[in-house]
Specification:
Length: 464
């Protein structure tokens, strides 16, 4: 049966009437087999049109790279010597986390926990085997989601954005299991595709990343950011730890908990008054609340800081507080131009910068002596002090630095997100309101994935 015929059969399945449980699982199995066969054929086509990349601990030979027929993707590999850092969890602590991860809930039998791969203030992340499909996944447990309104809204916001922002360079959820009811459930289990590591660990642990690696990483980041920004979304927390990486150099942007959607008719003070991301990757206009209205350029600055960290293997601006961060930025870039100062609405910030001792910029070729000249040219654009001088993500993709990768016209854009999706941010809500909205969002996500023959999972359990 040809690929086209299988796709037609899949469309027929999608249009079928409501199914019994047994029939549902059989058709889900067929959809999985269909998608696997499609991927096999695409991989075969790609292998005919591009040479494989060879790598060793001593060298990295880059062969011709061609896009997949279905999407502008490439085959690429990290060196075999790549390291992803050490896990610092003790055996006893690991055993406790694994034992308590799902508690006694029967639905947990679908996933066989492998190891704890992360632990932070927002939850615990484990790798696991999906026993229904045999695939490896990552499961993030967010405990006690509804202990306070802020955390509940952040969870709702991220779930919505992961449903609405569907792009190969953005992490996606794998499946959805509804809670027994919308009342009473306390914890969330978000099942993602499993990625090998994050960019922070890759940068920290490897000495043999090449210019080609840097180019490929940056191209994917900007490609994903272009999609995010065309949806009128600002990520606001881009940093190496929020960029997942696989051994084939595939990057995926994650952690949309601090992201916001911009609506032209909404007062900016409504959504710009809360916490921004890590200070080290924060644009200068955020360090002193310079402007009344922010732009996507805040994310472009963060990408520039990440790029500089790739080149030097250490954070570029490691400020201890906001004022110190500004000092470090102006030490490198020099004092702001008069026209940039004139646009600063915050009088205190404008006065501080105006009174600052005049500084001359440090040439980037001196700061980054071993970097590709084209890389430095792009970096200077990304790290312009004035947000008006920074390129958009799409403009950055067209930079000569990406001459061997760029097919900007083929990179997808998103439709702007409707303000209806985020109406909850503009009204007073209780925790129970957000609980119901999360439940409705899970229903919406489930219907979307089922209608498309996919399974993306956010697993919510009650009273664990």
């Amino acid at each position: 049966m040809c690929l086209q015929q299988r796709q037609q059969n899949a469309i027929k399945i999608k249009r079928a009437s409501p199914l019994s449980s047994a029939c549902f699982h059989e058709q889900h199995r067929r959809r999985l087999l269909l998608r696997r066969e499609q991927f096999r054929e695409l991989a075969l086509l790609d292998s005919r049109s591009s040479s494989s990349l060879s790598s060793s601990s001593s060298s990295f030979n880059l062969g011709p790279i061609s896009p997949l027929p279905s999407y502008h993707e490439y085959a690429f590999e990290l060196p075999e010597s790549t390291s992803y850092g050490e896990r610092l969890l003790s055996r006893d602590h690991l055993s406790t986390l694994k034992a308590d991860f799902f508690k006694d809930h029967g639905e947990a039998s679908r996933y066989r926990i492998q190891e704890v791969i992360g632990e932070g203030s927002s939850g615990v992340v484990c790798s696991a085997i999906d026993t229904h499909t045999g695939e490896r996944v990552a499961i993030k447990k967010i405990a006690n989601v509804f202990d306070n309104l802020s955390d509940a809204m952040q969870t709702l916001r991220e779930i919505k954005l992961l449903r609405l922002l569907r792009h190969p360079d953005i992490v996606y959820t794998r499946d959805i299991v509804l809670p027994p009811s919308w009342t009473g459930f306390r914890h969330s289990y978000v099942v993602f595709e499993l990625m090998k590591s994050d960019l922070h660990e890759v940068i920290r642990a490897n000495e043999d990343l090449t210019t080609e690696h840097h180019q490929f990483f940056m191209y994917q980041l900007l490609r994903g950011l272009k999609y995010i920004h065309t949806a009128n979304v600002f990520h606001r927390d881009l940093k190496p730890k929020n960029i997942l990486v696989n051994a084939n150099c595939k990057l995926k942007i994650c952690d949309f908990g601090l992201a916001r959607v911009a609506f032209n008719d909404v007062p900016t003070t409504i959504f710009w008054t809360d916490y921004f991301g890590n200070r080290w990757y924060r644009a200068p206009e955020l360090c002193g609340s310079f402007f009344a209205k922010y732009t996507p350029a805040i994310d472009i600055w963060s990408i520039g800081c990440i790029f500089a960290e790739m080149l030097t293997k250490r954070p570029l601006f490691g400020g201890k507080k906001g004022v110190h961060q500004l000092d470090l930025i102006t030490d490198l870039l020099g004092s702001p131009k008069p026209e940039a100062l004139a646009r600063i609405r915050n009088e205190k910030a404008r006065r501080y910068l105006s009174s600052m001792q005049k500084k001359k910029p440090i040439p980037f070729v001196k700061k980054f002596p071993n970097a590709d000249p084209l890389a430095l040219r792009l970096l200077e654009r990304l790290l312009a002090f004035d947000p008006k001088e920074r390129p958009t993500a799409e403009e950055a993709l067209a930079d000569p630095y990406f001459h061997r990768w760029a097919k900007v016209e083929r990179e997808p854009s998103a439709n702007p997100i409707s303000r209806v999706e985020f109406e909850f941010e503009r009204r007073r809500s209780t925790i129970e309101d957000i609980r119901e909205l999360i439940y409705r969002e899970i229903l919406a996500s489930f219907q979307l994935k089922y209608s498309e023959g996919e399974y993306s999972y956010i697993v919510f359990f009650s009273n664990l």
